[in-house]
C-alpha cells in the first residue's frame, strides 16, 4: 500500500474554449471537474497502475462535499479530517492553442486542533497498516494557518516507523520538510534555487557540473529529481547523475505530468524495481499524461507503451 497526503485538495475545474477575449462573454465548449490536489492526482494514476493506496485530505464546507463526490466517482480511496473553513477551487481556462490561464483560490486556514487531528489520522494509518505501507507520498502545497511544519512532522513519524517518504511540495513547507530528510524530493529549477539559496544556470549536456551543488543535499536525501519540463529531468542518486530524456509526444495538456511522474516512480518502487526503471516508468507516465486533455487519467497501457521510448543515461 502507498499512503498519500493531500492537505490542500480542490475542485479542479477546466473550462475549454476556442479563444479568450477579456471583457467579453465566452461560451465554453466543454467543462470538466475533477478532485484536484497533487496527491489526489497521484492516487488516480496509481489506481490505473493497480497499486492500492489511501489519500488523506482536509475537507471543509460545500466544496469539500463536492470533492468527496468527485473522489468517489473516480474510485479513489480516501480518509479525511473535517475543517471549519471551506475547501478551495481552481479554475483553468484552456484555449484551442493550448494556452492556459489558472485562477487559484486561497487555501483554507487550518486550526491547531484540525492539524492535530490530521497528524492523529496519519499516525493511526501507519499503526493500522504498518506492515502494508511501503511508501508515503506527501504531495502539494501546505494549507494556510500553522501547517508549514506538518510535512516535517509527518516525515519524522514515517522515519521513526521505518517508512520512506517522497516529498513533492514547494516554498517554506518544502524547506522545512527537507530538514526531516525524506527519501526523495522532486523540485523544479526555481524550487531548487530556493532550497539551495543560490541562483545557477542550467545548460544542456553540462549536468555533471551541477553535481557539487547536490553532494551535501544527497547526504540527507537519497534521490533528488530536478524536473526541466520539455528538457526532461535530471536525477541525483547517491552521488551519481542520471539524465532522463522523455519521449516526444504531442503535448495537449501538461497539467499533472509531475504528479503522474511521481505515481510512475512509486509504482516501480512498489514493485522493487531498480531506480533506473522507476525513473523510466515515471517519465513515461508524465509523457502519457501530457498527451491527454484530462489531468492524470492516463491508463496503464498508455504509460507502458512509452516506457521503451524513455532514455536514461548515467553521466560519468
Question: Can you put this structure into words, describing what you see?
Answer:
The protein has 316 residues and is α/β, with parallel strands linked by helices. The protein has a single domain, classed as Ribokinase (UDP-N-acetylmuramoyl-L-alanine:D-glutamate ligase, 3-Layer(aba) Sandwich), CATH 3.40.1190. The chain is built from ten helices and 16 strands. It has helices at 38-48, 61-73, 112-129, 150-160, 171-178, 189-196, 211-220, 257-270, 275-290, 300-304; strands at residues 2-6, 10-17, 30-36, 53-59, 78-82, 88-95, 100-104, 109-110, 135-139, 144-145, 164-168, 184-185, 223-227, 233-237, 240-245, 311-315. A ten-stranded mixed beta sheet has the order 5-4-1-9-11-12-13-14-15-16, with helices on both faces. Strands 3-2-6-7 form a four-stranded mixed beta sheet. Strands 8-10 form a two-stranded parallel sheet. A hairpin with a 4-residue loop joins β6 (88-95) and β7. α1 packs across α8 (257-270), α3 (112-129) runs parallel beside α4 (150-160) and α8 (257-270) runs antiparallel to α9. The longest helix is centred in the middle third of the chain and has 18 residues, at 112-129. It starts with a strand and ends with a strand. The mean pLDDT is 91.
Tags for this model:
16 strands, 10-stranded mixed beta sheet, 316 residues, single chain, alpha/beta
What topology does this entry show?
Elements: E1 2-6, E2 10-17, E3 30-36, H1 38-48, E4 53-59, H2 61-73, E5 78-82, E6 88-95, E7 100-104, E8 109-110, H3 112-129, E9 135-139, E10 144-145, H4 150-160, E11 164-168, H5 171-178, E12 184-185, H6 189-196, H7 211-220, E13 223-227, E14 233-237, E15 240-245, H8 257-270, H9 275-290, H10 300-304, E16 311-315
Parallel strand pairs: 1-4, 1-9, 2-6, 4-5, 8-10, 9-11, 11-12, 12-13
Antiparallel strand pairs: 2-3, 6-7, 13-14, 14-15, 15-16
Helix pairs in contact: 1-8, 3-4, 4-5, 8-9
Amino acid at each position: 500500500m502507498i499512503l498519500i497526503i493531500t492537505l490542500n485538495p480542490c475542485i479542479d475545474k477546466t473550462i475549454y474554449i476556442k479563444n479568450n477575449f477579456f471583457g467579453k462573454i465566452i461560451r465554453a465548449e466543454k467543462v470538466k471537474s475533477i478532485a484536484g490536489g497533487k496527491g489526489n492526482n497521484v492516487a488516480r494514476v496509481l489506481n490505473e497502475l493497480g497499486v492500492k493506496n489511501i489519500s488523506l485530505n482536509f475537507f471543509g464546507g460545500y466544496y469539500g462535499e463536492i470533492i468527496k463526490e468527485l473522489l468517489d466517482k473516480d474510485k479513489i480511496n480516501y480518509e479525511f479530517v473535517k475543517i471549519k473553513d471551506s475547501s478551495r477551487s481552481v479554475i483553468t481556462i484552456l484555449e484551442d492553442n493550448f494556452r492556459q490561464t489558472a485562477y487559484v483560490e486561497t487555501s483554507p486556514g487550518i486550526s491547531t486542533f484540525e492539524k492535530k487531528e490530521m497528524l492523529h489520522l496519519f499516525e493511526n494509518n501507519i499503526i493500522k497498516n504498518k506492515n502494508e505501507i511501503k511508501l508515503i507520498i506527501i504531495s502539494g502545497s501546505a494549507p494556510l494557518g500553522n501547517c508549514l511544519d506538518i510535512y516535517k512532522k509527518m516525515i519524522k513519524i514515517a522515519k521513526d516507523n521505518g517508512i520512506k517518504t517522497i516529498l513533492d511540495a514547494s516554498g517554506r513547507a518544502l524547506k522545512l520538510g527537507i530538514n526531516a530528510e525524506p527519501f526523495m524530493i522532486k523540485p523544479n529549477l526555481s524550487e531548487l534555487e530556493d532550497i539551495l539559496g543560490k541562483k545557477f544556470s542550467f545548460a544542456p549536456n553540462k549536468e555533471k557540473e551541477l553535481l557539487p551543488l547536490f553532494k551535501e543535499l544527497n547526504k540527507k536525501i537519497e534521490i533528488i529529481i530536478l524536473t526541466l519540463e520539455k528538457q526532461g529531468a535530471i536525477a541525483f542518486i547517491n552521488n551519481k547523475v542520471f539524465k532522463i530524456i522523455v519521449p516526444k509526444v504531442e503535448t495537449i495538456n501538461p497539467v499533472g505530468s509531475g504528479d503522474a511522474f511521481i505515481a510512475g516512480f512509486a509504482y516501480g518502487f512498489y514493485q522493487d524495481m531498480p531506480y533506473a526503471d522507476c525513473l523510466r516508468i515515471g517519465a513515461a507516465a508524465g509523457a502519457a499524461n501530457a498527451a491527454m486533455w484530462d489531468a492524470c487519467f492516463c491508463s496503464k497501457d498508455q504509460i507502458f507503451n512509452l516506457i521503451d521510448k524513455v532514455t536514461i543515461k548515467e553521466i560519468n
